[in-house]
């Protein structure tokens, strides 16, 4: 059996936004709202983690020795 495809940042964000809109409408039963809120919190963490990883990657450069080092604009 093939493994499920991992969603990218944009797909997770889109799903998170759909849940937020659904919760903002306020016309879903409380139990369903709680489940959707929990799902939204998990998606928010996934998105936050991906953003932090991207930021860490973008603040590194490869030096002359082919090693990653923090980027310092003052150098």
Percent of residues in helices: 55-70%
- Major pleated sheet: 2 strands, antiparallel
Shape: rod-shaped
Mean pLDDT across the residues is 86
Radius of gyration: 19 Å
Oligomer: single chain
Number of helices: 2
The total beta strand count reads 2
Order of helices and strands: HHEE
- Can you tell me the residue ranges where pLDDT is under 50 for at least 5 consecutive residues? none
Gap between N and C termini, in Å? Answer: 51 Å
Give the strand content. Answer: 5-15%
**Main sheet: strand order:** 1-2
Written overview of the protein:
The structure is a single chain. This protein is mainly α and 75 residues long. It has one domain. Helices cover 61% and strands 8% of the residues. It is built from two helices and two strands. Strands 1-2 form a two-stranded antiparallel sheet. Strand 1 and strand 2 form a beta hairpin.
């Amino acid at each position: 059996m093939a493994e499920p495809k991992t969603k990218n940042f944009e797909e997770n964000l889109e799903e998170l936004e759909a849940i937020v809109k659904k919760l903002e409408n306020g016309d879903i039963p409380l139990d369903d709202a709680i489940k959707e809120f929990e799902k939204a919190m998990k998606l928010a963490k996934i998105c936050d983690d991906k953003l932090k990883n991207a930021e860490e990657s973008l603040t590194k450069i490869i030096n002359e020795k082919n090693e990653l080092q923090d980027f310092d604009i003052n150098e």
